[in-house]
Design a protein that fits this description.
The complex is a heterodimer. By secondary structure, chain A is an all-alpha fold. Chain A contains seven helices and no strands. In chain B, helix 9 links the parallel strand 14 and strand 15. Chain B is globular. The chains are: A mainly alpha, B alpha/beta. Chain A: Keywords: Membrane, Transmembrane, Transmembrane helix.
Chain lengths: 204, 382
């Protein structure tokens, strides 16, 4: 409930300031603020602010000693936004496209510009396919995915998770385990269902 | 080398990966000494950022020692201790030549709407990040800066993003002397934005959040008035009353795409992914600023659309100002402010985790357990 006593009426005739032409009165003078706040007003002059003005032409002040950078090798076949004229001269090489998720992501880049929702939704689909494929493949390794250790959920105990009782965000925190564990439970259910059907068919 | 790797939404682990190598003549390889988890890393962690690939190493806030340099590097030497801006930028494209380092056009082949960022999905270029023992740093002559002798390592790592972004947010607000400034969010960016608002002459700074430890930090570290939005039916009405029904002159939105404040919007946007996140804070900013005022947005949002009250922004005649922070542009002036004690980034650090405990670190930060405001990561080789 909003507390009406917190209303601050500062105009001389008791009308709220928004309804009259007066300037709002400062609660503290600049001298008082300067005495109370370390550095108050140090950047009062916009000229002292590093991002003023927004555009400041200074091509020689960046450290670059090229007009256009030398091109990094390996750009052939790399995915790029079709809003770019070419693969940028420098690019990241982490996690190159692969498998089914790679085909989905390549389609997103090759077919749709960044302006199209399809571009982003396809990338999200690619992300989920990538995650599921990686989870499945991890079970064929000596280090399968472990939702307990990988989510850090045990820190609920060491970091006093119960202390967030009463916080408004607690309501949706309850959903997090469902979102994390839900697909695993659904996957396990589907595997059990499929195995039972297979066994029944073999028994006939 | 040991590196944090993404295994799908809400799942991470530390893996053995190949040490990065020089891929371009102006690359450097940096041995990471200290890294941090940024609030925006949580968007990746929660599966909200398109093209976040399994195996990706996050981390765009880090400092370290130059371990190797490419053949064209002139300004750094092996052994230099450097702080690395979260932006990857070439220094020579149309945008870099005009100071918009966060909008570089030569480093992100995957998108034109955002520049290059370390460890922040392939949508920002596909570069592995610094929550690892080593990291590849492109354009070593342009981005990194040697850490001044007097600077504390924890200040240095926070200046690579969170602190610079808070300072930049206050500048976007174009604050004039005596302005009433509302900062939405008392996380690392919001705390520095509140400190910075005073430097620019604010007459009043009000910080809004719902976490008591963060509001306490806003009072002690940033000398701000605070409002806990959980205590009000409608925080916008409270802010109108607080400002004599005028609205704030400037609102700095330092929350981003996972805002709380509306359970329905949070679930729809950030859990069910029905839109590009939860725009609650952005809409509160539009609603609580005065007509003709300025909304500065430094909270992180992805490329998927969100239900923003654009009509209210039009009808109120607002100036909406935003960008990813061009970090290196902020540094010379920020270094002075840190040295003078006007900005105190390391006062916000609450947790320090070894890299091997990265899953716990993300969970504690994401769920805001144990009073966590800013967690740092210590790589094994540091």
């Amino acid at each position: 409930m909003t507390d009406p006593s917190k209303t601050h009426t500062r105009s001389t005739d008791e009308l709220p300031i928004a309804y009259v032409p007066d300037r709002p009165q400062l609660r503290e003078t600049p001298e008082q603020l300067r005495a109370r706040i370390p550095g108050w007003g140090a950047d009062l002059d916009p000229a002292d602010r590093p991002s003023h003005p927004k555009l400041r032409y200074d091509p020689d002040g960046t450290g670059a000693h090229w007009r256009f950078p030398e091109r990094q090798p390996g750009a052939e076949g790399r995915e790029r936004s079709i809003e770019h004229a070419f693969v940028t001269p420098v690019f990241g090489t982490a996690q190159p496209l692969h498998g089914v998720s790679g085909h989905i992501r390549r389609l997103a880049y090759a077919r749709y510009s960044e302006a199209r929702l399809g571009h982003w939704l396809l990338l999200i689909v690619g992300d989920r396919v990538d995650a599921w494929g990686s989870h499945v493949r991890s079970f064929a390794t000596l280090r399968p995915d472990n939702p307990v250790t990988q989510t850090g959920v045990l820190s609920e105990f060491s970091a006093d998770g119960a202390a967030r009782r009463g916080r408004s965000d607690r309501r949706h925190h309850l959903l997090d385990p469902v979102i994390v564990a839900g697909p695993w439970v659904a996957g396990a259910g589907a595997a059990v269902f499929g195995a039972r059907r297979l066994l029944r068919r073999m028994a006939r | 080398m040991r590196a944090m790797t993404y295994r799908g939404p809400y799942k991470l682990r530390v893996e053995e990966k190949d040490k990065p190598s020089i891929e371009h003549p102006n690359d450097a390889i940096v041995r990471v000494q200290l890294a941090a988890i940024c609030g925006s890393d949580l968007h990746l962690y929660h599966g909200m950022m398109p093209d976040t690939r399994i195996g990706h190493t996050f981390g765009h806030e880090f400092i370290g020692v130059v371990d190797e340099i490419g053949s064209s590097v002139e300004h750094l030497q092996v052994g230099d201790r450097v702080m690395v801006p979260f932006n990857i930028f070439c220094g020579s494209c149309w945008f870099c030549a005009r100071g918009l380092y966060s909008n570089c056009h030569n480093v992100n082949a995957n998108a034109t709407a955002v520049g290059g960022i370390y460890g922040y999905s392939h949508t920002t270029g596909g570069y592995d990040g610094g929550q690892a023992e080593y990291v590849r740093v492109p354009f070593a002559d342009v981005g990194p800066v040697k850490i001044p002798d007097w600077m504390h390592d924890e200040d240095a790592v926070l200046l690579t993003d969170a602190a610079a972004t808070g300072y930049f947010g206050a500048q976007l607000g174009e604050i004039a002397e005596g302005d009433t400034v509302v900062v939405l969010g008392a996380g690392p960016v919001g705390l520095i934005a509140a400190q910075s608002a005073w430097l620019m002459g604010a007459g009043r700074v009000i910080v809004v959040d719902h976490l008591t430890e963060r509001l306490e930090k806003a009072r002690t570290m940033a000398y701000a008035e605070t409002l806990d939005y959980d205590e009000y039916d409608d925080i916008v009405v409270e802010l109108k009353q607080q400002t004599d029904f005028l609205g704030a002159d400037v609102v700095i939105e330092a929350v981003g795409a996972e805002a709380d404040g509306s359970c329905l919007q949070h679930i729809a946007g950030t859990k069910l992914k029905l839109q590009g996140g939860s725009p609650v804070a952005l809409n509160w900013a539009i609603d609580s600023v005065r007509k003709g005022g300025t909304v500065a947005v430094v909270g992180a949002y992805g490329p998927i659309p969100s239900a923003v009250k654009f009509g209210d922004a039009v009808n109120k005649g607002l100036s909406l100002r935003m960008n990813q922070t061009p970090v290196k542009r902020q540094w010379p002036r920020m270094f002075e402010h840190v040295r003078n004690g006007y900005l105190t980034p390391r006062a916000m650090v609450t947790h320090r985790f070894p890299l091997e405990n990265i899953s716990e670190a993300y969970h504690v930060f994401s769920a805001k357990l144990d009073g966590c405001i800013k967690p740092l990561i210590l790589p094994s080789a540091s």
